[in-house]
Amino acid sequence: MRAEIITACSQGENPLWAKSFFPDDLPEDWQLDYYSNEFSSLFLTSPKLLNNQLLSELEECISEDFRLFIKVQGNFSKTEVGNQIPNNSAITIIGVDSFKTIEQFPGLFFAETIDLAEQSMDTHRCYFYQYDDNSLTPKELRALAEFLLANARHEGDNIYLFFSDNKYTVENCRNMQLLAQML
């Protein structure tokens, strides 16, 4: 079984991609469930965005395969983060200081993670792709996918790819999902 690329949107406060993704009449407390029908992970750019409503949705509505990634500032330990964020097997922490630039691929950053589950086996790699406010071409997406798959540590790894927040985030996520299935 080869490595799998799993795409996700980045969500800060008032994400640009959300305006065109969610139906206008969708209640806010249904948004995560709606989002999880298409994507199996979400990247929050701040722990402040993790509120009781979101935690409730994680526990009630979302499939057990869904994973929420949260970026935290500074150096941290599993104990420190666990005291701030509830222990939940669907939550993975990424330290902002752990983002490393990938020189071979401009705009791509690698990050180390901490799973909050006590018996976690970290077998996935996380990448964040920061790009201009545009849609990536098929050629750019293919080069990115091939780079990620070539750098997987083990067969069967999950490679999480978070696209930066702009109006093309959802389009780029969908296109990468389709491309990754074809490779």
Could you name the key traits of this structure?
29% helix; 24% strand; 9-stranded mixed beta sheet; 183 residues; TIM Barrel; alpha/beta
Strand content: 15-25%
Q: Please, how many helices? A: 6
**Rg, nearest Å:** 16 Å
According to DSSP, the number of beta strands is 9
Point out poorly predicted stretches. Answer: none
- The CATH architecture name reads Alpha-Beta Barrel
How far the N terminus sits from the C terminus, by CA atoms, comes to 13 Å
- Seen as an oligomer or otherwise, the chain set is single chain
Considering the protein shown, what is the CATH homologous superfamily?
Protein of unknown function UPF0759
**Fraction in helix:** 25-40%
What does this structure look like?
This protein has helices spanning 18-21, 31-36, 52-60, 78-84, 138-150, 169-182; strands at 4-11, 41-44, 67-72, 91-95, 100-101, 108-111, 113-115, 124-129, 158-163. With 183 residues, the chain is α/β, with parallel strands linked by helices. It has a single domain (4-182), classed as Protein of unknown function UPF0759 (TIM Barrel, Alpha-Beta Barrel). The protein has a 9-stranded mixed sheet with strand order 5-6-8-9-1-2-3-4-7. α5 (138-150) crosses α6.
